[in-house]
Amino acid sequence: MKKMLLILLLAVVSMCSACDKSKQADPCNGFAWLTAPVKVGIILKDKVTGENFFLSRNIDVSKITITPAETLTIQTNRNPDTYGALSFLAEQTKKGDIKYTINIPEVGALNLSHTNVEKATGTPCHPSMIIVGEPVIEGYSYTVENKDTYYIITVKM
Description:
About 15% of the residues lie in helices and about 40% in strands. It contains 2 helices and 10 strands; from the N terminus they run αβαβββββββββ.
């Protein structure tokens, strides 16, 4: 008898707390909006010889500074598009003009900028996203290639 009463009591308690139909489910609960990070790769070439400065001049990446601060790497992965490029992640959390100053010892300084635009997505969980615009280099001849989420800038100095 006690077992039956205990089972009945547990059944009543579990039915009362199992489902609350008055609450609306949040459609965004557990929703993660991840966009691929946009990388910028800068290849510096001698305008006369065409040699890549990062590969031929043995530049120490730890001595290169970028403002605002970003993590810098020189790509040596043998990908023909990015081999020998100084790479960093583009700012993509703010809209508007984003400017960087990159100081490279024994080479000089580069001023790079891009404009980020906010775009509506049409989803209630993430109503907008930031689109990183094509980078611009001031004062030097350059070309820009867009490879998915990678801007590759070749600068002739």
